[in-house]
Structures are given as structure tokens and as C-alpha cells.
């Protein structure tokens, strides 16, 4: 039994009129049905093959469907045309079907939509009928595939297309986000290059790739400097004479009055009594020098109060009462004996002036009390006097401030005098 293909080519003719045969070939009364046309029985004129069909041989009674991978895009097609790249052509295609946006087909003769593959990673395929990518995706974005524009959009098939995520950077045409390296971070999206990754912030460490925030703060007793990009919480050991609390960017000098003799310390220790600790001085506290005292946490040695002193070889005093009262006949300032009290004055204890103006003579001078002053009437006081000297018998001194024994005058007539004082003769 003849097939459809064979029956298509049982020669058909066109009978114009007056033909004496069912197969006229003289061209006047009829002719063989030409290529690209078909002629049903009794045809007075040939019929062109419709788009999507063709007739490759003369005498056809019907047209053949255009085979898959080809197209027949004009009426009267004699031979199918190979399907163009960027398209696909199923059976009986009149016009090639374009591959959709985000896909491409580099080969000619595609049979079906399965020939349209997703635009490659790192590239975009804008619009339809792409036979190659239009270009690379923009920097700051990444394209895993199927991108329809240089700024890729998320799709059901490629849900991660889009902005470069934080902790990463995406150069032009990035297939996948590149993680910021160890010791760096990026806390915003859209990084475009390695320079978009910032050094780990001072006082912190960044121990893994792709961080948007530091891994944590530097440990107590250590520091993580700016620009170093610390990879661990114990980047640098805190040096002697400094302290490093958690998250230190640099070692902090011990403040005045404190010290730290060890490395790797979080805090400084108050200077012990009898010693002083100057700012930025590393190492052990210094003994309090002579003429001074140093209570706990002393920054600068304190001078003994005026009216007190220490011997030149004495050091390490802790409080003001450790300083000694100025000795009799002397005056003391800045913790040292400055010299003898002036003539006409007495200095029993605690004097700090060359010419003191203190209370009158006391039998005993309590600690911390200044017992010094102008030589009283009836007495005289040579230079360096600790206790006023009474005028000799039968002499008197009615005014204070006598310097020498000669300042005591003879007792006047009609009076008697005892220890510089006089009275009426009975």
C-alpha cells in the first residue's frame, strides 16, 4: 500500500482547458504541478504550499510539513531553511520561535525549546532570540545563571542572583560572590573588588573569610592594632608598664599612681605606700625620696609639710606624720632644714619661718603645733634660740624681740627686777 510520501508524488497536473489528457504537458492546455505547490485532482491552477509546509518536487498533490529543526516561512516553499541560532523550530514551523529572555542557543537547527539553555553564569542575555550572551553582569552583582540584564534579578530557577552579599565582593562578570579574605570584613552589600573589603577594626579580630562583622573583641591582656587585620584575639601581648582591657586597639600606659611589672595584664596596680609611680614609666615603683612622703597610689612624691623635715638619708616615708618636726632653733621648708631662726625670735619646734610669728612659749610642744615666735618681753633670743633666755637679775626688757643680753637694761631706781621684770620697792 502506498505511503503518504509516495502518494504526495503521484504526479498531479494543472488542466487549463481543452485538454485531451489527464496529464497535459504541452504548457498550453496544462502542465505538471510545479515545486512549492500542490495540485489536487481537477486543478485549474496550482495552489502554493502554506507557510510551515513545502513541496520539494513537481507534481505534488499535497505539501509536506516542514521537518523539525527547519522552517518554511514563505508561501510556496520548495526547500526548508535551517532554523537560525537563538531559535528553535518544531515540526511544521513557519517562523522560528525565539529562545526566551535569560536563555540562549548557539547552534542552528534546534528542534525544540530544550535547546534554549540558561544564560551562562557571570553573563546576561537580554531580550529574546539570543545566540550568545550580551555581556558580563555588572560589578557589585553576581549572576549564577539565567540573567536577563546586566543588573540580574532573582528568579525561581536562580534565587540567589542579585546584589553581592555582605562579607563578599563581586567583580564584573562574577559567577559567585568572592568572600572577603581572613582579617577583613564588609558590612554592606554590593562590594565590587577586593578593595571593598575593609581591614578588621582596631581592637577586634577577624578569624574567617566572608565576615560582615568582626569575630569578636581582643582578649584582656592583648591588643589588636588598627590596620593590622588581626586573625586571633591574642594578636599582641600587652607590654610591661601598660594595661590592655578587652577590645584594646593599643596598649594603654599605666596612669600616674599605678604600675604594672608584668606583661599581658588587663589592669594596672596602685603604687604601694612609700613608693611613687610616674605616668608612662614602665617597671617597678620608685622609692619615695628624702624630704617627701608617698601614700598609696602616689603619682608624684609629696613634700613634707613646712615645719617638718627628714634626714638626707631617709626615704620611703608613707604619710605626713612620718616627717619629723623641725628641730629646736631651726626652721624647715620643703622637708629640709633651711637654717637657724633669726635673732630676736625663738624656735622651740615646728618652725618654718626665719622670723616666726607663732604662739608664746609652751612647756611642751604637742606634735603638729608650731611652737615659735617673737622673743617675749623680759627675755632675749640670740640666733638659733630654741627657748627664750631670761634677762639677768637686776635687768629688764619691756619690749619683745630682744636679740642679745645687752638688750636687757639695768633696773631703774626705785624698782626691783627679777628675770627681766620689775616691780615697786616696798
Shape: rod-shaped
Q: What is the CA-atom radius of gyration, in angstroms?
A: 58 Å
Strand content: 15-25%
Mean pLDDT value: 87
Characterize the structure shown.
Mean pLDDT is 87; it is low at 1-9. This protein has a domain at 1-82. The longest helix is centred in the first third of the chain and has 5 residues, at 4-8. The protein is built from one helix and 44 strands. The strands form 22 sheets. Strands 1-2 form a two-stranded antiparallel sheet. Helices cover 1% and strands 24% of the residues. The termini are far apart. It is rod-shaped. With 426 residues, the protein is an all-beta fold.
Architecture blueprint of SSEs:
Elements: H1 4-8, E1 13-15, E2 30-32, E3 37-38, E4 47-48, E5 53-54, E6 64-65, E7 70-71, E8 81-82, E9 87-88, E10 97-98, E11 103-104, E12 117-118, E13 123-124, E14 135-136, E15 141-142, E16 162-163, E17 168-169, E18 178-179, E19 184-185, E20 198-199, E21 204-205, E22 216-217, E23 222-223, E24 236-237, E25 242-243, E26 252-253, E27 258-259, E28 269-270, E29 275-276, E30 286-287, E31 292-293, E32 302-303, E33 308-309, E34 324-325, E35 330-333, E36 336-340, E37 345-349, E38 371-374, E39 379-380, E40 389-390, E41 395-396, E42 409-410, E43 415-418, E44 421-424
